[in-house]
Amino acid sequence: MATQELQEQPRRNTPESRRGPGSVSPGISYDLSASAASAVRRTTGLLRRHKLLIGAVIVVGTGLAALVAFRMTPLYTAETLIMVEHRKNTVLNFEGVVSDMTPDISALQSEVAILKSPAFAEKVVAKLKLMSDPEFNASLRPPPPGWVSALNPRNWIPDSWKHGNDVPLSPEEIERNHMTSVVNAVLDNTSVRPQGRSYVIAVSFDSEDPRKASLIANTMADLYLVDQLDEKFKASKRATQWLEERLTDLRKEAQTTGDAVEKYRTQHGLTTSSNNESTVVGQQLSQLNADYILARTKRQEAETKLRDVTAMANSPRGASAVGDVMGSPLIQALREREVDLQRQIADATNRYGSKHPMLQALQSQLRDLQGQIKADVGKIVSNLSNEVELAKGREQGLKASLDQAEAKQNEQQQATVGLRTLERDANTAQSMYEALLTRSQQIAAQTDMRQPDARVVSEAAIPLDPSQPNRKLILLLALVTSGTLGVLLAMLRERSDGGFRSPHQFEMATGVRSLGIVPRIPRFGGSPAAYVVDKPISAFAESMQNLRTSLLLANPDGRHRVILFSSSVPGEGKSSVAAAFARTCANAGQRTILVDCDLRRKSLHEMLGMSNGRGLSEVLAGTATLEEVIQVDPRTGLHVIPAGHGRTLPQDTLGSSGMHQLLSRLSVNYDRIVLDSPPVLAVSEGKLLAALADQTVFIVRWGMTKRGTAMAGLKEVIEAGGEVVGVLFSQVDTRRHAQYEFPDSGRYHGYRRYYAN
User: Fold this and answer.
1) Is the peptide bond before 570 cis (omega within 30 degrees of 0)?
2) Whole-angstrom Cα distance, residue 270 to residue 263?
3) Is rRNA processing tagged as a keyword (predicted)?
4) What is the number of helices (H) and of strands (E) in the chain?
5) Domain ranges of the chain
6) What CATH number is given for 503-755 in this structure?
7) pLDDT tens digits, one per residue of 233-273
């Protein structure tokens, strides 16, 4: 709120406030090149302002890096190249137990992982006996010097914190931990990487001994090839062992299933014929079926013949028809004899009459002949009836046999289903046995022809120059890093700067105009009050002249004669500036009097080399007259009223009417009445004096007074009714001030040849 009030109050009549809403501030630049140049100047100024800090960080950082780099043990790197074979061996045209590696990206990365695996590194450690090498086994190294151990941050941690609750380990576990640490040390010094988009893998190893580096790198390559063959051999061995066990089981299974098939076939009468196409029952059924059909045909023929003969026998023709049908010679002969007798009877009847004994004898012969024919026809019919019965019996017998054979065949067909299942099981077992037997023979044939999927294309030579540490690179990186860190620290320091670095900053923040800056006098230049007289053409003296001129321009009619020098807190150089300004005015011929109003910390008399017997306190208390306390500076003719030794409270003394009357009296006799005020934030007298003074010069120490503190002090003065004519920056380092990009940067320092400092 204080900042906002200070900004709003004095800017109501500024030229910027009178511009229209559409006007463009002349202080704003839209030139990108100018903005870039300004940024470059600001950066350059930042580096110049903090060059000591940046230089110190660079020197310390680079020095430490150099110390570490030259104390590092040099390491030698040996590299061997392994190419993964992408051409396939076609000597064996059957598939191997472990398929040949396809050298794509994933396969190469897998091989890299194998070369970087702890198990592979453990083989290298075991082969080269690196457990007894102090370079990798830390327990075999001699202890470092005491000062080196003291510098190691790990040794700063108590052992109880590092170990905690340790679990007791057996000797085997301790030995295993040692092996693990050695393996990790080997892996830390190992680098495995593919060479671009090729099939080549580069294996490099770092060691303190160049011969050892070459040996370990070549050993890794050899063990890698041996490991490939070993894994393939182990895989073939495991496959062969499994196949042998499986072959034994399949051989037993094939034999068992084959025996089951034969036993089942025998039990169910499923024995096949010589051509293995049909069973015995099937053949019998076929024969019976043919016999049955033939018997049925004969039976039908016999029945037909019997039916025809019977019908003919009962026909008018009788025996003649039967004889014709049957073709019996006997019937035909008897029939011819009958015809002959009938002819003879007819002749005898015509010749001898019906009663002739010859005719009767012929008729008797005819009757006997016809009886014989009839008897023969009866026999024929009887024989045919017997043949029909025999045919029926034979047909029925064959039918029974056929039905029995069909029933047996149905049983065998049902049994054949089970037989086919057993035969399939037997064939499957036999096929699996034969396939595994063939595979076993293939694996046995390829075991002796196994080759690795990689080869060494370049063995590691003994390195002549160390690869680590790269001292030049370390120093360069340290230089760049420390420089960057220095710049960052400078920026952080710049950002954390809580003070004002220019009156322009103060004016932008509060609206109070600037009265200039007061350069810091040299370290051995004495007090400012003496320096302004001893060095009248110095930059410090010129700043006092500039302040005097600014106050004259601010008071053209000369009515404002009482000038108060005030500040927020002690140590801002307020008293020194007041004394130097008073001497400057007196030396210029103005009647000037300097009044020490800081009754708590009396210091003006010491700066001017005067006594403090009686002073302002005694005048206001009425124990001394004004003429008795005024002292004259012999070098400039400046009149001085010291603080004196009053016993009353300072605020009561300075706030009395006597103080007002004293200032009115002095205004009649002097052109300048310079008041040295105590800090307004420390005590209350400063605000009382601000209300009595015609003009107040507010002092801010350059870069030291906090911004909030300075603005709070200014607010106290304004609220007390003080007429703040401007702000004056004291103890300014002109060299550093010139490095900032402010409108007043470079003042005094940029023109230092004009001054005799």
Assistant:
1) no
2) 10
3) no
4) 26, 12
5) 43-72+471-496, 503-755
6) 3.40.50.300
7) 777 777 777 777 777 877 787 778 877 777 777 776 666 54
